[in-house]
Amino acid sequence: MTDERYLKRTIVKEVVSSRYLPEGSRNLRVYLPPGYNELLSYPVVYCQDGEQFFNFGRIATTANQLILDEGIEPFIIVGVDVDLQHRTSEYAPNGDRHQAYVSFFGEELIPFIEDKYPIRRESESRILAGDSLGGSVSFLIALAFPNLFHQIISLSGAYYPATRKIAEETGDLSALVLYMIVGLQETAFKSDHGVYDFVEMNRDMRAILERKGASTIYGEHDGDHVWGFWQPYIPEALRSFLQSES
């Protein structure tokens, strides 16, 4: 049974204006840790598919548990919502809204959050997180804004050929650190544009990344392309990048 302390979460709804996104704005949900104090400063995790990370990934409950019981330094989580009708066009590198989304993320979202919340400004204090295409767009955002990001949580990243080609054509990636998992049952995943072997895809991407100097924390586990597989690995993923206070 879940400890009641984990369920006492502070989540603030925000709307950030955008000159890049066609809608002119984007909804966010911001998790504030236990004991949140504006006089302190915090690391931050930026999640693609924000609503799903909070509802299905249970990331806020997990954060409370890590902070309250494991002594992980308190951190903020920003979930960036997405309209599922436009998800592929925003997250995939060949999507017609992709460049607008990437520009929004680095040039509008980050300043909005860092102006409003006491976020540390060094790249070591920012983490990108995403599942499937959310993992691959997190990688692409890190490439677009290397001074902002170098830590990525990738849950069954959808590293389709276009993204792997970009990785191949990019030079030194030694600044990047990726936590990557994939499910061993994800060998014939039906996407919007074909059937893909995610295990092979992630193995190939890992090889490209490491050849380019990136560091990976890589795991293949029993599981399929669903939150029920990813959610139990979120604590480990967060621990990989967030420090204990002790």
UniProtKB/TrEMBL annotation:
SUPFAM superfamilies: alpha/beta-Hydrolases. Pfam families: Esterase. This is Esterase family protein. It comes from Paenibacillus sacheonensis. The lineage of its organism: Bacteria, Bacillati, Bacillota, Bacilli, Bacillales.
